[in-house]
Amino acid sequence: MKATVKWVDGAMFLGESGSGHSVVMDGPPDHGGRNMGIRPMEMLLLGMGGCASFDVMSILNKARQQIAHCRAELTAERANAVPAVFTKIAIHFVVSGKALKETHVKRAVSLAAEKYCSASIMLEAAGVEVTHSYEIVDTVAQQ
Fold it and tell me: What is the pLDDT of residues 41-95, one digit of tens each?
């Protein structure tokens, strides 16, 4: 896997992935930025959420669950000193669909957390307290 980060100006950078996709990163005005892009630490948090969501959805699809939506809500705490590393991250999955089985959702979240999500497992190994939770929304009950 490869990536390139190019400085644009001030605190703005352009990240280019090896797969050919780009993203703008920028800092707040008090750090020389213009607030025109995502912060690098936000990107790290989003990356973890994307990685875990990918795994949860893959497991639920293999279990033939009828998923309508899956949202991962992440909250993070950072150290009050430099480096301001993540100290805690909570990821809460809201999975909606038709007649979803709680055992499958619980298993998917557990497997993502403990076995498959490289990002969250890597952050935990670095000392970040990572917690996972879920809720199920039955789309049939909403109709």
Answer: 999 999 999 999 999 999 999 999 999 999 999 999 999 999 999 999 999 999 9
Distance of CA 117 to the CA centre of its chain: 10
Q: Do residue 130 and residue 66 come from a single domain?
A: yes
Residues 27, 46 within the same domain:
no
User: How many angstroms separate the Cα of 12 from the Cα of each of 18, 38, 81?
Assistant: 20, 10, 23
Residues listed for the chain: 143
Instruction: Give yes or no: residues 84 and 23 share one domain.
Output: no
Residue 140 DSSP SS3: coil
Range of the domain at 60: 40-138
Model pTM?
0.90
36: CB partners within 8 A, 6+ apart: 12, 24, 26
Instruction: Classify residue 112: in a domain, yes or no.
Output: yes
